[in-house]
């Protein structure tokens, strides 16, 4: 299941740094909750997020079951220029993947 069509990303240049804001649409099930029929919901959570600028890996984030549903991340990358390509890829524990990209404004 690929959910990247709903993920959102923005990147802006501010004071010589690239500010990236990222919203990932994902249920982030911990594996400890039950559904309406009292059946345990299988764990499903993003475990790896990677960010590239113009093909160079800039950031790696490791997540776990305690990360919120539809997580929002905001971070700064040193340097950058208007027009740089920012690419973010995530992978969850059951193999689902997402990919989102933007250009720095």
Q: Would you kindly provide a written description of the structure presented here, covering whatever features stand out?
A:
This protein has strands spanning 8-14, 17-23, 46-53, 56-62, 72-78, 85-92, 97-103. By secondary structure, it is mostly beta strands. The protein has one domain (4-103): Immunoglobulins (Immunoglobulin-like). The strands form 2 sheets. A 4-stranded antiparallel sheet has the order 4-3-6-7, with no helix packed on it.
CATH level-two architecture: Sandwich
Which regions are unreliable across 5 or more consecutive residues at pLDDT < 50? 1-5
| Proportion in β-strands | over 45%
Number of domains as seen in the coordinates: 1
**What CATH first level would be assigned?**
Mainly Beta
The CATH homologous superfamily is called: Immunoglobulins
Describe the global form: elongated
What is the count of β-strands? Answer: 7
Question: Strand count, sense and closure of the main sheet?
Answer: 4 strands, antiparallel
SSE topology string: EEEEEEE
Output the number of helix runs: 0
Q: What structural class is derived from the secondary structure elements?
A: mainly beta
Helix fraction, binned, reads under 10%
The radius of gyration over CA amounts to 15 Å
Give the SSE map.
Blueprint: E1 8-14, E2 17-23, E3 46-53, E4 56-62, E5 72-78, E6 85-92, E7 97-103
Antiparallel strand pairs: 1-2, 2-5, 3-4, 3-6, 6-7
Give a brief outline of the structure.
This protein is an all-beta fold and 105 residues long. 0% of the residues lie in helices and 49% in strands. 18% of the residues are buried.
